[in-house]
What we know:
Elements: E1 7-14, H1 20-29, E2 36-41, H2 48-54, E3 66-69, H3 78-90, E4 98-102, H4 109-115, H5 119-122, E5 125-135, H6 136-140, H7 148-154, H8 166-176, E6 180-184, H9 191-204, E7 210-213, H10 221-224, E8 253-260, H11 266-277, E9 282-290, E10 296-303, E11 306-314, E12 323-330, H12 335-343
Parallel strand pairs: 1-4, 1-5, 2-3, 2-4, 5-6, 6-7
Antiparallel strand pairs: 8-12, 9-10, 9-12, 10-11
Helix pairs in contact: 7-9, 11-12
The chain binds guanosine-5'-triphosphate.
Amino acid sequence: MTLLNKIPCTIVTGFLGAGKTTLVRHAIEHNDGRRLAIIVNEFGDVGFDGSLLAECGIPGCDADAVVELPNGCICCTVADDFVPALNRLLDRPEPPEHILIETSGLALPKPLVQAFNWPAIRSRVTVDGVVAVVDGPAVASGAFADDPEALAAQRAADASVDHENPLEEVFEDQLLCADLVVMNKSDLLDEGERARVRAEVEAHLPRAVKLVETAHGALDPRVLLGLNAAAEDDLASRPSHHETEEDHDHDDFESVALPVTAAGSPEDLAARVAKAAEVAGVLRIKGFCAVADKPMRLVVQGVGRRVAHHYDRPWRPGEHRDGTLVVIGLTGFDKDAVAAALKG
Ligand SMILES: Nc1nc2c(ncn2[C@@H]2O[C@H](COP(=O)(O)OP(=O)(O)OP(=O)(O)O)[C@@H](O)[C@H]2O)c(=O)[nH]1
């Protein structure tokens, strides 16, 4: 049972590029003055999402309220990183009223939920809800299943099914743990695709879990926060492909940070990123870059073959303007080919 004095924490999970940061940002923006803190975990230690959130410029969102946990996977570094970070937030003179935890797209949520039972934090916090953000177009294109139709027919919530596709396993673990599923990027789907994605996601859910559709993570914080799930008390109904922390590693995935010299134009860089994204096994490309003669920093984001870019802020005086892109992919992806594509 949730004690009144426990601070609620929402765990935002979801595959690489599904829209977790976008959802968290929307929640900060529409938060009605509640004191929020954000913990951001990333695979690939460039601190991209943390930087986007800490520098969001939203009134009332204090950069100190954003804690970055880089270096891989929050579910594997619970003791060293997560619990101390959480305790530091709770020990502040004005502790947050609600904490949002954005996990890396490759993290499994269940070990993190289990961590809420650690004696050091158990009496202080509770998991208000696990929210799984789903990349609608990625599901529609069959990214998480070798044969989506056969798969949908095959299963309901059989967590023992063997998978050859590591993407699918991570995706499923995230759904199996969820209290709320957010089917994002609905703006990129037609009605038929939306129904298909909905059916496929529902086929993976082990319990009656609410599914909402969003575009650009625009979900009312009254829906997102306050689910009151106390998920740490309810682990049995959240099956996982990896029932122990030891069982879980990320050998299936790797990341590399590549320097990029200033681009002639955003379009030129986006074309190079799109080319790099075509290299087999590449899943996600993101980072900051310079554009010749522009005083602004360019944010570049590739999910699959879709590349988005925008200027987020002016370069600071004296700031090093060389860009870096983080590329995350299946282990063994051809980094030389990616580097060559990015060079143009
Ligand atoms: N068209 C469209 N684009 C979206 C939507 N939501 C997010 N995006 C874009 O998708 C890209 C990834 O969004 P993020 O919010 O960074 O995704 P993420 O899940 O935090 O990504 P990782 O942290 O790398 O796993 C960005 O370019 C977003 O602008 C949406 O609903 N529709």
